[in-house]
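Readers of this paper often ask what the protein records in our data store actually look like. The remainder of this section carries one protein's record, kept here as part of the documentation.

:::
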Amino acid sequence: MKILKIIRLLGIMLIAILILWIAGWNLYASHKEKQVREAWAKTLVPLDEIEKKFPPSTANATALELEKMAADMGFDLAPEKPGRPHPSEEAIKTKQNLYNKVGGYSYTFVEIQLDRPDDSLG
């Protein structure tokens, strides 16, 4: 009987701690969001006025062409709207392979430059 009361009390305490934890983090997150909004409003445009200043518009032919070229290279510039171009899996894999190759070459170049006794490049 006494063990059941202790287990019940521990369960209630655990639930209370969990509720306080969640409430505390929600308050903290709200506080940080308010700070960010205030900082944004001081340096740029208040978030509420962004859509007024920059109303939604339709994409022109140049923007659509840029989205298509970027998608062919594995970059996704288009918004999630029907009919807009997005990169294929093959284009994304090609881009990743290129990044890996370039990253390896640039790392080797940096190592060689750091090992040189003088300031010359090459």
Observations:
- The chain has two domains: 2-50, 57-115.
- The chain has a mean pLDDT of 88.
- The first helix runs from residue 2 to 43.
